[in-house]
Structure formats: structure tokens, C-alpha cells
Design goal:
Helix content is 54%, strand content 0%. With 79 residues, it is mainly alpha-helical. It has a domain of 35 residues. The protein is elongated and about 55 Å long. This is CopG family transcriptional regulator.
């Protein structure tokens, strides 16, 4: 996908924060700005119109919150 140039007016303090983070992390300032615009675009999207392709798992019974917590903890510790 191609990129398009645009001009955006921002608070000076926000821009200074981005500049400092870019320098500290060795990233381009534009990366931060593109990421923020992408997040804003996702947020503005009407998700109710989208068809979700989320798999449904049937374990033959209700899964408890404790089982979910245990599974997450095990996944994290195995990472």
C-alpha cells in the first residue's frame, strides 16, 4: 500500500514527546505518527458492519474463569 503525504497540526508538547521517543528508540518520528493515524482509523471504523471470522471452540461444557486464568498464566510462563 502506498503512502500519501499530509499536513497535520499537533500540540508542540506532543511533537516533542514523539521526537524524544524516536531518538531514544532509534525509530523515525513518522513511524509514531503513522501508527497513531492507523489506530485512529481503526477506532473510526464501523465494526458492526464487518463480518467477524472468530473461531468458536466447543469443549462440551462451560469453561470456568479459573481455567482461563490458569491457561493464560501457563502460556505466559512458557514464553
Amino acid at each position: 500500500m502506498g503512502l500519501k503525504r499530509t499536513t497535520v497540526m499537533v500540540e508542540e508538547s506532543d511533537l516533542e514527546t514523539i521526537k524524544a521517543a524516536a531518538k531514544r528508540e532509534g525509530r523515525a518520528e513518522a513511524e509514531y505518527i503513522r501508527e497513531a493515524i492507523h489506530l485512529a482509523a481503526l477506532n473510526a471504523q464501523s465494526w458492526t458492519e464487518q463480518e467477524w471470522d472468530i473461531p468458536v471452540f466447543d469443549f462440551g461444557r462451560e469453561v470456568t474463569q479459573a481455567e482461563i486464568d490458569t491457561s493464560i498464566r501457563e502460556s505466559i510462563s512458557n514464553s
